[in-house]
Every structure is written in C-alpha cells, then in structure tokens.
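Recap for those who missed Tuesday's class. We walked through two folding examples back to back. For each one, the amino acid string is listed first and its predicted structure tokens come directly after. Nothing is annotated here on purpose, so try labeling regions yourself before you check the end of the notes.
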Amino acid sequence: MEWITPVRPGFGGFDEPYERANVVFLGMPLDVTSSYRSGYRFAPARIREASANLETYLTSAGLDVFERLNISDLGDLVVTPTDLKATGERISRAVKRVHGDGKMPVLLGGEHTLTYFALQAFKDVFVVQLDAHRDLRDEYLGDRLCHATVMRRVLDRLPPERLLQIGIRSCSKEEAEFARTKRIATYTSEQVIDNTPRIVAEARRLVGKARIYLTIDLDVLDPAFAPGVATPEPGGPSTVEILRLIRELGKLNVWAFDVVELVPPHDDGTAAFAAAKIIYELLAAIASSPK
C-alpha cells in the first residue's frame, strides 16, 4: 500500500496476509500539533512491543483472538512532519482502502488529530469517544485542527447527535457551552466509575445498530494507570474499569477503532501495556459478538 512502511513483527506477532485478513492494523505515528508532551511518533512501536508480551487468550471472553480473527498489520504510515494536510490525506486514503476492502481498520496512534482524517473514509458512522477531554475547542493556540479541536472538526462533518463522549472530566467553558447547546451525549469519568452498566445500557439505546467508530484516547485512564500520555488528567477510571466498559462497547456494531495519545518518552511501559490490553479485550469482544 502506498505511503506505508512495513513493520515486523506486527501487532501480536501473528500476521495474516492482507488478502485473508478481516482486521487490519495501521500505525499512525502522527506527531505534529502537541501543545505539551510530544513523542507520539514512537507510540505504534511501543504498543506492538507490549502486545508481543501479553497473552492472546482472553480469560474474560474465553477465546484466543488470533484463532477467531484473521489479523494483519500493514506497518506505519509515512508522516511528513511539516505538512499535516498531506499526511492527513494519506491517513484518509489508507483507511478508506482497508474499509473499502471489507476489513476493519485498527489505528495505532499517534496524536488524536488522526481521528478526523480517518473518519473521512466513512460516510455514515456514530462516533464513540473515550477521553478525559472533550476536544471541542474551535481553535487552540491559533490552530483550528489539532489534538484539542479534533472532535469539533469532526462535528463540522457529522451531526452532534452522532457523537457520544465517555470519561470526560476536563474542558474549557467554551467547550462546555458548545456541548450543552448541541446536546452532545456525555458521561463523566465519575459516572464510569460509579455505574458502568448504566452507561453501557444507555449507549446501546443511543447508538442502536449504527455503525460505530470507536476512538480511545488513553488519557481517559487516570494517570496512575497511564502516566505516559500527552495531557494527563487526574480523577479518571482505572484500567479494570475501562476494560469492563470496553468489553461491552465491543459488542456494538464496531466498524473501526483507534487508540491514541500515547507518548512513550514519558511512559514507563504502563500506558503502552494498557493500550495493548485494551486492544486485545476489544478484539475479543468483537470476535465473540454476532454482527
């Protein structure tokens, strides 16, 4: 595939040929608009490394994901650090190609801005966002498209009733007013901690059978469980609490997902392993759920 650098071993180390795959990993080392910690470009490699050191059999689901899913890892997208537009177009084309071939794209980020470009490959999806932050600013530090504005730009193309935000515990006054005015469905981190089953039930009611794009910003986790992220936000759920949520969200009609905002230079491996575990649990839920 054009503008992709092959990486071996891929996620989990069990690469199926692309032609036989129904799940396809793409590394997205986008590292352009950071306003605090940078180093996203190292994230795909660290997540793959962690994945090779976790079991592929999930006790929570009673299955081995590589026995149930044919998984291929194409490698990493080539990023032009000085040209976000050109890199974004490559992201969109790569995801569109995988999706158009009838396969599920899984994106290893990389900064959250990549979600905006990835979503351009889909015509009709419901976005479920796990995140500590709303990312709904209209502009930030002079940028209209960056990690802090990504969901606002998504809503330039998507109606607000097609966005569900879970784990929120930080935003500006502008973002709070925008979300309230647009009536964006939101669940806070404390609601996740206090009553995950209720959130899952209401998410099922809200999204129904819609096609889901799930975007997981690792800062949804409390910094105690994911220290190596770009903008840590205290007061979040634990890894176990997020895994319980992920196992249920994976039973929805998920068509693609990304895991973003890991910054390895600030991580001791904890966040990278959390990312890999979240991916395995999500794949297990997808594999065990009839679509």
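Example two. Treat it independently of the first, because the proteins are unrelated.
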Amino acid sequence: MNTQTASLIEVQSVSKIFGSVIALKDISMKVNAGEVMCLLGDNGAGKSTLIKILSGVHQPSEGRYLFEGKEMHFSSPRDALGMGIATVYQDLAMIPLMGISRNFFLGTEPTKGWGPFRRFDVSHANRVTREELAKMGIQVRETTQPVGTLSGGERQSVAIARAVYFGAKVLILDEPTAALGVKEAGVVLRYIAQARARGLGVVFITHNPHHAYPIGDHFTILNRGSSYGTFAKSEISREELTAMMAGGEALEELSHELAEFAHTDEKARAALEAAAHEFGAAAEQLHVEQLPPAFEEAERRHDELPSVDGDGKR
C-alpha cells in the first residue's frame, strides 16, 4: 500500500471484549493528515475503549489496526507514542505547582553538563517552550509560572503544543472541552484548528455536537459499543448529528413527555385560577360588614371600657 496516500491511522472492523462484556463491536474509522475526525457518543458509548485501542493501552480482540498503511500491534502507550500517536487525556498529565516549561518537558527534560554535574537546562527549556507556544498562538507572561495558574483552556493548549513538539503525527484529544466554559472551549477549538493546519491528524472525542460540528471534517458516531457510521460534514447537519447521538427514538419519547407535561401544567394553572376565584368569592361573603349587629355592639362596648393600668391594658 502506498503510504503517501494511506490514512495516518485506520481501524477495520475492530471489536473489544472483556469477558462476557462486548465493549466495542465492529468499529471502522480512519484519520487522514490535516483532518479532524470527531468521535461522538453519549456516556457509555465506547469512546474511552476505542481511545485506549488507538493509544496502545488495549489491543483489539478482533479486527485490524493500521498506521500509515501498516498493521500495528502496540503493546503499550509508549510504543504508540514512539510512532507519533500522542494522546491528551482530560487530566493532562501535568503537575499544577510546577512551571509551564517544567511541565512541557516532563519526563524528557533537557540537560547540560556531564556526569554528576548534569542538570536541567532551564534556559533552553524556557526558550523552546515560549517558541512552541507562540507557534500555536499562545502568549504566556512567564514560562516559569505554575501551570495551576493557567485557565483550563490554556492548560489544554500547553498539552497540545507539547504533543506537537515531540513529533506527534496523530493527536488524540479526550474530551478537551468537557469541563470548560464557552470562551475557553472556543480557545481550545482554535488550537485544534491550528494543529490541523500544521498537517496533523486529529481525533477529537466529545459528547457535545455543538463543539464538534464547527471544527470537524468527519464524524464517527458510537452508541452502546456499535457505530452508526462515519459521515463527512457535507453529509450530515448538526441537528441530525444530535439526533443520532441521542437516538431518534429517545428524542421522540422525550418530546412526547414534554408535550404531556406542558398540557398537564396548563390544566394545573387553570385549576389554580378557578380555586383562587372561589376563595375570593368566599372571602367576600365573610366580610366583617356582614357580621350580626349584636356582635358589633359588643365589640364597641369593649373598646369603651377604661384600662386597668396606664398603658391601655385591662
């Protein structure tokens, strides 16, 4: 197979079975250079299991896993990383109290000196970190500031820039916008677009079609371990994407429930208005002016009695 035209990664009829549990069944998808493949599905759809197969944590029980046209059998994430498949998980694998440059080179620290005098090359690390972040459009005040002081979107961007610097050809992003606000999610999507522009193949895992649709080129939809298929952006609308993720039957059932609730709520409002009207009419009938004259005369005499003490108390 010609590796120049082959997809960066491709899975063909992949399944994963844990004992009696079928986590994935007959999944096929591929990721090309300079494209964003969005992997969508609700919780429990099988996204995490497929990520672990792509990143080398698990081997598929059935099917083939191809990288640049060659079948692969990764035994660990380090093997996948060595081939250029980098995964950025939700926890980002960062230490909040350490500086940006220290986190950028965490596990692959540049050193200077020799023998017992070898030490971390701070100036080199700071310079490279600043340059690589600038290529992604990220400006930081100081590369020595703790990562914990960055926003969630900025931390995601540092993790993406780190993966790109260390030679990633495929970037797998595990729910990068899940815990972010609207503005920070937009920042991460911009960095994903920049990674695509630099020729990387990006796998964007999410359960939010509103984040996936603006940035995605292709969409693979999972539901309970099975695939609904892969669609190009021109073949599917955002509404259709949402309906397929949730399941058309589930959305239809929810629509009927909401319609029934609205009908019930309208009936309840009318009943409350009728009850209020009845209470108002009853209050009018019990108005004090309609009390017997004898009761009013007794009340008047009581008010005219002299007080026992000087404070008006009897």
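Answers for example two:
The chain has two domains: 9-245, 253-304.
The CA atoms of residues 153 and 163 lie 16 Å apart.
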